[in-house]
Amino acid sequence: MARKKGLAGAVRRLATPVEELDREQLREYCEGLGLTPITEIQPRTSVRIGGEVRSVRVVPRAGAPALEVTVNDGLASATVVFLGRSSIAGITPGRRITLEGVAGKQGNRYVVFNPIYTLLP
Asked: What is the dihedral of CA 18, 30, 72, 36, to 10 degrees?
């Protein structure tokens, strides 16, 4: 969505909830990086997604720790799982990140296991 300038843009920014403006800005940022929108992921295909880390938690899988990271691109969320890891320096809520790997589907959520990641400023 193109940003309006001038008085119309100011009125829109004042009338729109902050969360919606943040989602729009994040969506535009991800589009600018040429990332695949999470809503367009095809299971069992290689994808390059990204966005903002929303949550990080450690979940045991098969007796070993697994770091589950929820990433949102302004449209939807995906879960990224780093098997055998209980933390990764720099991956914290609010941080922007790009991820490359093969996407799968578990229930109603998209999951990418052990992707290549890049932390963004």
From this structure: 140
